[in-house]
Amino acid sequence: MTPQHVETLRATWQKVLPIGDTAARLFYNRLFEIDPAAEQLFAGTDMALQRQKLLQTLNAAIGGLDNLEGLAPVLQDLGRRHADYGVSDSHYDSVGAALLWALEQGLGDDWTPEAKEAWTTAYGLIAETMRAAAEQQAARA
């Protein structure tokens, strides 16, 4: 992740925050559209609370970009917890696609090639860290 990526992520995130709940709704609607099986993972979930958790997690990730070593344990724990919830490796691909789509919808003209590259890189790093922790947990079980 380059300093330009970090700058772009922070600038675009500031534009997403005012429309956070709408962006989170777009994300979950798109996720369930492209991966209907993922919706079962949220059966009985308070989706308003879940949308808040998504925004808080993304906010923490964006805030932790200056200290990736400190962010890694948080993401690893998140990956282990998601494995316990039944999240599979393939879900990371559909979540990434839904996230990028929701950001594109929410940012409109601010969804530039640079923004797409920065968010794609960031999500790849997040997903890779979470997947590795989930795989390590599964190997221990």
Number of helices: 6
Strand content: under 5%
Computed Rg:
15 Å
- According to CATH, what is the topology? Globin-like
CATH architecture name: Orthogonal Bundle
Please identify the oligomeric state: single chain
The largest sheet, given as strand count, sense and whether it forms a barrel, is:
none
* Secondary-structure element order, N to C: HHHHHH
What is the number of beta strands? 0
Our measurement of the CA-to-CA distance between the termini, rounded to an integer number of angstroms, reads 33 Å
List the defining traits of the structure above.
single chain; mainly alpha; Globin-like; 6 helices
Could you explain how this protein is built, in words?
With 141 residues, the protein is mostly helical. The protein has a single domain, classed as Orthogonal Bundle (Globin-like). Helices cover 79% and strands 0% of the residues. Helix 4 (68-85) packs across helix 6. The protein starts with a helix and ends with a helix. The model has no long low-confidence stretch (mean pLDDT 93).
